[in-house]
Amino acid sequence: MATPQTPYDAVLHAARDVTRLDTALDAEMLGAALLGSVYAVAETDRERAVREFVSGFLAATARRRTAAARTIRAVFAALVPDAEGTAKVNPGTQAPAWSEQLGRVHLTGTWCYGDVYGDQTSYLATFAYDDAAGGPEHALVALVDHNIGITKDIFVGGPAGRIVDQVREMVDGDELTWFREEDPARMHGEVGRHLAVTDELGELPAEGSLATDRALAGARLALLPPPARPARGAEPLSGDERTDLVRAFLASPEAVRFDLDPSDDAGLASLHFCLSLLLDHAASFPDADSLRWSPTVAELFLLDWVHRRAVLDMDDAAMLPRVLRGWAAYAARRKGLPGAAATRTDTAIEEMVPEFARLYSTGERRSPATAAVAQLMADGVDPDDPVALDAWIEANRHRLADDGA
Fold it and tell me: Whose CB among 35, 37, 151, 387 lies 3.0–4.6 Å from 215's, allowing a Cys bridge?
């Protein structure tokens, strides 16, 4: 066989057996997989790249008269209805009977489930074709990761009932997970908001079916009612809100339990500095929440973020794990988390302390800027003395340039 001359020819070749499929769902899954290769290789705005590819494909294949060509054109038009040229697509009389059901589905249920900490939320929606000839009832599952602020994975498949039952069984009896019915408009808003971030990633998550199922998931998501107002993440606390929250924590039983009541000014300054770091870290998340502290969030903070973003003296480093343990316990109580969840986070933090101490002593995860500030302080230079600061920078200019600071 001759080598396909264009990407459109390659797609036509890959879809040559589309008319032999049993259902519209099978055809839509094939079409989404083909478009997944376009989505995966796009460098930015992946959704637009797929839409433009479909527009180009429809224009380039407008004169193709084979049943397979006309059918895959109809599949792409159903998956990406806002692409240019979709209104003129006609599968023709040779197309399979199920072609009339392409994209003609309705919502049958929406749920969501996740961990009690709020690290991840999975949204689940089930759909049925208007005519059973289109295929079986199927499910869309979208995993939102709140720590990185993206829709991390997407899956479309069936049977829908079995998927819902499997989720129920997975969370049943596990006090660290939850499952509930969800408002379809909220699902639309939350999955769509995080999916828009995913579409702009330079590199997609390595595992899962995100690329292959993206087009079909987008088509199904578009069938959900839109949110009443644009979905948006929580805003970081204002200065007054931070102050009130810190005061409430310092008056809490958790602050007493972890002995967070320094008797001298230096200890009090270190305590407030540590608390400010916790709040700054929470505000750095796309979905900011000062009270969301899980083993994963604690690890991101204690073993990575704080080393890159802050310069700690020995008193700060000695106090920080204890402040984190107290704050995490306080947050767990405020959130109403099960005791097992709070215990798991506290145990995880304890186990991280040796590695935190090692990273603090080696400085291996410091950013160039943080390393420069740490060296400045070690050299006894007052950052508030502009003359001394300028002299130090001039004396260390070559080393700073080599370090990239």
Answer: 35
